[in-house]
Hints:
Helix content is 41%, strand content 16%.
Amino acid sequence: MSETPDRPAAGSDTPGGASGGSGPESALVAIPTYNERDNLETTVNAALAGSAHADLLIVDDSSPDGTGDIADALAAAHPRVHVLHRKEKQGLGAAYLAAFAWAAERGYRIVVEMDADGSHDPADLPRLLDAVSEGADLAIGSRYVPGGSVRNWPMHRLALSRGAGIYTRAMLGLRVQDVTAGYRAYRLDALQKLRLDTVNSVGYCFQIDLTWRAVKTGLGIREVPIVFTERRAGASKMNGAITVEALWNVTRWGVVHRTRQLRNAFRRGRIEG
């Protein structure tokens, strides 16, 4: 799943930081980027300050605005920061899959997904890591459990997010309140049970896909309340194609899931009858 970088990946040979890749709970924070030059340095510095026991991997999809160069400069200045350059923009899902493979190859135990735009508060990072260290296979930074919230979103964006969550939970029978959340931490050995080689979700549907797989696999999931804040600068990557992908996949998965439930119920009824 790793991509061949266009240029050497800065700081990518061995894990750095306080824990490195060999500690009992060593963690890697994966930060995908595409045209995030106005946000990246602030996000990285805050993430470094937020946890002294996690390394960072910036996964840049050859951003035309020079984000990759900023990433390299940050890696040169901070031994806990690493960079993976990819040849072209291939979507959020592919970027995270490349980061998961990178983390596995270097012996990390926990991998965290974090946006580069400042919407995910690095101050919440220790609580996500603690949840995994305490036994969760997947810790989700949730906007929609008690104590969680969203700041500075327009009403239509909030309505779309909440509506997507309600529809997804209804179709798939999920109890997870924030199925589309992008701020999450996985225990890497549990993550590798999700048949990542069969994942082809591109946009934010990737988060739903992995949540659905985690539930079906029986992973332990814990939702940790967070405050999600709209990006500081730059344009959102959300677009119509991403929404359509999520709607189509959830509907397709839901129809298969509910049909299987009905078939099993019918079979049980015949046996009991």
